[in-house]
Amino acid sequence: MMMLREPVVAYGKKQFTVEEYLDYENASPEKHEYYQGEIFARAGASNRHNLVFSNLFTELGIRLKGKKCRPYGSDLRTHIPENTLFTYPDISIVCGDIINSPRDKDSNTRPVVIIELLSSSTRSYDRGEKFMLYRAIPSLKEYILVDTESVHIEAFRLNDSHRWELQEYKGMAGALQVAAVGITVPVADIYEGTRLTA
Q1: What does residue 187 show for φ and ψ, rounded to 5 degrees?
Q2: Which residues fall within 8 angstroms of residue 65, CB to CB, at 6 or more apart?
Q3: Measuring CA to CA, which residue among 53, 125, 40 is closest to residue 86?
Q4: Whole-angstrom Cα distance, residue 42 to residue 31?
C-alpha cells in the first residue's frame, strides 16, 4: 500500500489537521493523500501506467466533447467530507460545475465516475479500502479499475437498487461501457501500444 513519509518529519507528529495537510500539500512537489489525520505518499507510476492513462484520458475527452461531463486527470484533488479522505484519482469524470470542498477551494467533492489504474503496489488498496471510502461520495455512480499489467478492466456500477454491480472486461475484444455518462471506449484503444495481449 502507501507508506507514511516526509510529513511526519516536517511536523514532528503523526496526527495532522486538514489545514496542516493542505499547507504541506500545497507547498510539496509530490502528491500525498490524507485520511483521518494521517498523510500518505502516493506510489509512483510506470511507463505503461502513463501510456494507459494517456490512451484512456484522450478517448474519454473525445467522446465527452460538447457534453456536460468532462474528464480530469490526477491533478484534480478529491475530498470526501463524509470520511475525511483527500486523494487524487487517476481519472475523475465530473458533470456540470466542479463542487469544491468547504475545506479547500481546489478539491472536488462530486465526481460521477472515478477510474483508477491498477499496479502491483496499489491493486489491493484500490479494490478494497479505497473503494469502500469512495462509496461515501453521494454523486458517484461508477468506479472503474483498469489493470496496467494485464488486459483486465473491472467496472462497478450503482444499480437502481443502489447496489454495486460488477462487469468485467478481459481481452481486447469489446468496449468498456461508461454507463453513467453514456459512452463506450474500445478496450483495444485503452491498451494500444502497451504490448499486452489477452
Answers
A1: -60, -40
A2: none
A3: 40
A4: 6
Nearest Cα residue to 87 out of 175, 25, 6:
25
Q: Where are the alpha helices (DSSP H) in the chain?
A: 6-11, 18-27, 47-64, 123-127, 129-134, 187-190
Per-residue pLDDT of the chain (198 residues; tens, 9 = 90+): 344 344 444 455 678 999 999 999 999 888 999 999 988 888 777 899 999 999 999 999 999 999 999 999 999 999 999 999 999 999 999 999 999 999 999 999 999 999 999 988 888 889 999 999 999 999 999 999 999 999 999 999 999 999 999 999 999 999 999 999 999 999 999 999 999 986
Judge contact between 178 and 144, C-beta under 8 A: yes
**Is 0.85 surpassed by the pTM of this model?**
yes
- Cell numbers that stand for 33 in this block: 493523500
